[in-house]
Design brief:
This protein is of the alpha/beta class. 10% of the residues lie in helices and 18% in strands. It contains 4 helices and 20 strands. It has a 6-stranded parallel β-sheet, with no helix packed on it. A 5-stranded parallel β-sheet has the order 13-15-17-19-20. The radius of gyration is 24 Å and the shape is elongated. The N terminus is likely disordered.
Length: 303
């Protein structure tokens, strides 16, 4: 059997890490390390810091959920953390049993925090302002998501949320690449503040019929297009008085607009500018003036 030697420097480092997580100042003996770690209820980079047999968790004191804190807790059903403001990377990763989370003060949810958690259906974070990369990726049962103060949506944040039908993001300003990729139940979207979308952003949202933007001025990327594979997209509404630039005709590949049965609605004052553009001219026959179609271009509630 191999012999492992631990020197004083290593022991001090372990003690310092425990004190950092517990906010304690007491001197720790090596014999006290194990019980001290067991008393840490949330946080840290090691998943085993939380009892994996938890079914419910309530704590009104903690303000941060640490990295991997509850990841793969196989029986966790409900979480009540009313004073938490930040949920760290992989905090609730891969939990099929989790159906209820009460975290009204959360402002930031970082990368992969709820990725592949299959129990969530109706989600609400009233003070949330930022979600990270792949934050809710492959949460395939989410149907509604209410985050009225959300401003930043990371790459792949809601990718593969295949049952998502209603989301309230009226203050969203930034949407990452592939953020809503394969959200195939979405039928309509409205983003009043977003100025740029990228490759894959809404690709393969197969039920998407109407996409409405007040401020969009740039569709970037030359790979798989922002709306590629949206096979029911019959109305793209671009309300900005400044022409929205587009990097590639691939933005609308495999959509009714590309096949001649869908339309792009823009302000009458710049419709000819769109038609003359080197890329938009591919769809010259599909442009319509917003002012001429009030029924179709009536504003919906912001997504």
């Amino acid at each position: 059997m191999a012999i492992v030697t631990i020197n004083d420097t290593t022991l001090n480092a372990i003690a310092d890490a425990i004190r950092e997580k517990t906010k304690a100042t007491d001197t720790l003996k090596p014999s006290e390390f194990a019980p001290a770690i067991q008393e840490i209820s949330v946080g840290g980079d090691v998943a085993s810091l939380v009892d994996r047999s938890l079914t419910e968790f309530t704590n009104e004191e903690i303000t941060t959920v640490g990295v991997y804190a509850f990841a793969r807790c196989p029986q966790l059903v409900s979480v009540n953390i009313p004073n938490v403001t930040t949920i760290g990377n992989y905090g609730f990763y891969d939990i099929d049993s989790l159906t209820t989370i009460n975290a009204p003060k959360v402002e930031t949810i970082t990368d992969c925090a709820f990725r592949n958690s299959q129990g969530l259906v109706n989600v609400s974070f009233p003070n949330l302002t930022s979600v990270g990369m792949e934050c809710f990726d492959t949460c395939q049962k989410i149907e509604t998501f209410d985050a009225p103060n959300l401003t930043t949506i990371g790459e792949d944040a809601f990718s593969n949320c295949r049952k998502l039908t209603a989301a309230n993001f009226p203050k969203a300003e930034t949407i990452g690449r592939a953020a809503f990729y394969y959200c195939q139940a979405l039928e309509e979207i409205y983003f009043p503040l977003v100025t740029t979308i990228q490759d894959y952003t809404f690709a393969y949202c197969k039920e998407l019929m109407k996409a409405d933007f007040d401020s969009l001025t740039s569709i970037t990327g030359t790979g798989t297009g922002a709306f590629s594979g949206c096979t029911n997209l019959v109305a793209l509404i671009l309300r900005s008085e400044t022409m929205c630039t587009v990097a590639s005709v691939k933005a609308l590949t495999n959509t009714p607009i590309a096949s001649g049965t869908g339309y792009i609605y823009v302000p009458a004052a710049i419709i000819e500018e769109y038609k003359a553009d080197s890329i938009w001219s591919t769809y010259a026959n599909q442009f319509r003036a917003i002012e001429d179609y009030p029924d179709i271009c009536e504003k919906e509630e912001a997504m």
